[in-house]
Design a protein that fits this description.
Blueprint (H helix, E strand, L loop, with lengths): L4 H10 L12 H13 L22 H12 L1 H13 L3 E4 L7 H7 L6 E6 L8 E5 L6 H16 L4 E3 L5 H11 L4 E4 L4 H5 L4 H6 L3 E5 L9 H14 E6 L8 H12 L3 E5 L8 H6 L4 E2 L5 H5 L16
Parallel strand pairs: 3-4, 3-7, 4-5, 5-6, 7-8, 8-9
Antiparallel strand pairs: 1-2, 2-6
């Protein structure tokens, strides 16, 4: 994998490659810095110019300049790990990459992740996906609904986007995959760990699967990574169907309510057998109801541009 100097600078400053203790810049911090650089006629690659001093750029605080210097000091370690990941089949996509999903920029704005790590068919990220999310502890009726909605997504020629967690996520992804559809798994845990699961290499070789994360591939699950994962699911999906949600708490509830509030894609909520206690409340907050999986297409037309948990997306 050949990275441009702009991409290397972004990876060095916004990821924890090379050392998990590096004080990397958050997406919003990077966005602000990139804006200042652009306004002053600079590019990210200028950080590697011996004559460049960030302190000379108007609008940059001394604290930020010091932080950037510390990150650049061990930039070689970040680049070396990036090369190592590439050798393992893990690709990196930065905001300066023309293949970076435009919907992430348009929907997340300054919170769009500067770097995406992934395996599999990255072109799936450019497609019009349909998100399917819900409880890890979904009941049998909800499990059947998750599979039925996923099969309908495949029928209308879209990719299923989900979080690859136990429950609704895995059920939907496996149902789509088993029906010959394409799936995008947005991870909140270790990407390296996922690609070592049984059956994953076969799924990736089929070119029907893409796994993506905004955190370093060896990083494990945290509540913060789950929140970031949720935002990416909604941003990559034209419509996201909430199968079963708790009321007032939990990852599904927080992800759906945040997406409704920020208008991050369109949120549709399942109303019927298998729904969760929070589904009616999500409808009250503005998510239109889906009562029949075969009617999913009517929501997609409004857009403008018992299933077995298989080993495809195991764990989480």
């Amino acid at each position: 994998m050949t990275l441009s100097n702009d991409a290397k600078a972004i990876i060095t400053l916004t990821t924890r490659l090379g050392s998990r203790s590096r004080p990397s810049l958050t997406p919003r911090m990077w966005n602000n810095l990139a804006t200042v650089l652009r306004d002053s006629g600079h590019e990210p690659s200028d950080f590697f110019d011996r004559g460049f001093d960030l302190r000379d750029v108007p609008g940059v605080s001394a604290d930020l300049a010091d932080r950037v210097d510390r990150l650049l000091d061990d930039g070689a370690a970040a680049t070396l790990e990036a090369d190592d990941l590439s050798g393992k089949g893990i690709w990196m996509m930065t905001l300066v990459d023309e293949r970076y999903p435009s919907t992430l920029v348009s929907r997340l704005g300054p919170d769009a992740p500067p770097v995406l790590f992934g395996v599999g068919t990255r072109s799936l990220l450019q497609a019009n996906g349909v998100g399917i999310v819900g409880s890890r502890n979904v009941d049998e009726a909800g499990a059947k609904v998750a599979a039925s909605v996923a099969e309908e997504v495949v029928r209308v020629g879209r990719s299923v986007v989900s979080g690859a967690a136990r429950g609704v996520d895995q059920l939907a992804m496996n149902a789509a995959y088993s029906r010959g559809g394409t799936v995008i798994g947005v991870l909140a845990d270790s990407l390296i760990g996922r690609i070592q699961k049984s059956g994953m290499l076969e799924a990736l070789d089929s070119e029907a699967t893409c796994l993506v994360s905004q955190q370093a591939p060896s990083s494990g699950f945290t509540p913060a990574s789950a929140m970031s994962r949720n935002k990416l699911i909604y941003a990559l999906s034209d419509v996201t169907v909430v199968i079963a949600s708790d009321s007032g708490s939990g990852g599904t509830w927080s992800g759906a309510t945040e997406a409704i509030k920020s208008e991050n894609g369109r949120v549709v909520v399942w109303r019927g057998s298998g729904e969760g206690p929070g589904n009616s409340e999500l409808q009250n907050l503005g998510a239109p109801p889906l009562r029949d999986a075969s009617k999913l297409g009517s929501f997609l037309e409004q857009d403008t541009p018992e299933a077995e948990q298989l080993s495809l997306i195991d764990g989480g």
